[in-house]
Amino acid sequence: MQHLKLDDVMNMERRKRATLINYLSGFKSANLIGTKNSTGQLNVAVFNSVVHIGANPPYFGFILRPVNVPRHTYQYINETGYYTINHIHKSFYQAAHQTSAKYDTDVSEFEAVGITPEFRGDFFAPYVAESHIQMGLELKEIHRIECNGTFLIIGKILEIWLPDNSVTMDGHIDLSQQGTVAIGGLDTYYEAHKLNRLEYARLQKNA
Amino acid sequence: MQHLKLDDVMNMERRKRATLINYLSGFKSANLIGTKNSTGQLNVAVFNSVVHIGANPPYFGFILRPVNVPRHTYQYINETGYYTINHIHKSFYQAAHQTSAKYDTDVSEFEAVGITPEFRGDFFAPYVAESHIQMGLELKEIHRIECNGTFLIIGKILEIWLPDNSVTMDGHIDLSQQGTVAIGGLDTYYEAHKLNRLEYARLQKNA
């Protein structure tokens, strides 16, 4: 096996190091976060760091790197308190990825990449019409991570939109069937195939 | 489409709600975290929340729910400052999942589920021998998430073990080829197939 010590990693060319380390956490979620500022400017950006925080009540977090991603997501959430999280599907992952380009402040990434904003009821932030698993969230907590200045943004899920009959009696969703994709590294997109649904792990007899 | 408001989610049966919400963040990383306490007791537990925090220097985070996962991971990391993160592959995901059962304090989950602890050099915490993408980390920060009492644990990667020739010249790893799996919900395991590696997103001409 190959052994990379911290010094080896720190001596890598910057882009190579970023690529390698981004693969090492394993597969990542692929979501678009939609926001709107107080003057009505819309923003949408791809995030691969949405993470489950809790179900009762439902909270999600995501990691925001002010240096590498558009600051608009952070600004607009901070300013208004609302945002949407929308699954990226196989049908539009290329357009979703393109939202990570550095557009000017007065450009809506929705228009620039050809993704459709969708307003539902009186929810403040725009959903992504191309996504059929959509959540509307309210900002709850921001944690600044001291070691490198990134932020963990935590929100409460206020509403969920998803296809009729997509949730089983016991709460399962077939993510493959929905076409939801996964991300590896910074820019590699994957479709997934179910291996198995395992039972809730209990102590084994004679173990 | 189906519209679930927060009240609908809160009125669901507890297990169904946990299952549903756990699917909604999208695909998750599948890792085993290995720890050892000061008296030499070993622990290993499955986590689906390892998330990239930064590459320069390399930091990973994970979410720890004291209520639902063995507290040993938290105790041992807090006590010793070291832990390992090991990819779960298709070849042993069933055994890896079984680590989430509630074993007694004096039981090593390694022995109980048939996973092999591996000590490398003088690194304090045990790696998982069945995993061929292994990282050794040092604890850097613990953030308590106020809204539900979970923790974000952040560590610095001190060393990486991975197969010879598994990293390309520009830092890519083929996670599918390595057999690394993804998790959906709490208990559904997936293998992934690459759709495409996209280019770094730049502004499009005429866009």
Keywords:
alpha+beta; three-stranded antiparallel beta sheet; homodimer; 13 strands; Pnp Oxidase, Chain A; 37% strand; 207 residues; seven-stranded antiparallel beta sheet
Report on the structure:
The structure is a homodimer of 207-residue chains. By secondary structure, chain A is an alpha+beta fold. In chain A, 17% of the residues lie in helices and 37% in strands. Chain A is built from 5 helices and 13 strands. Chain A has helices spanning 6-10, 14-24, 72-80, 93-98, 109-113, and strands at residues 2-5, 28-29, 31-36, 42-47, 51-55, 58-64, 82-87, 117-118, 127-128, 134-144, 151-162, 182-184, 188-197. Chain A has a 7-stranded antiparallel beta sheet with strand order 4-3-7-10-11-6-5. A 3-stranded antiparallel beta sheet of chain A has the order 2-12-13, with no helix packed on it. In chain A, a hairpin with a 6-residue loop joins strand 10 and strand 11 (151-162). The first copy, chain A, is globular. The two termini of chain A are 32 Å apart. Strand 1 (2-5) of chain A pairs antiparallel with strand 11 (151-162) of chain B.
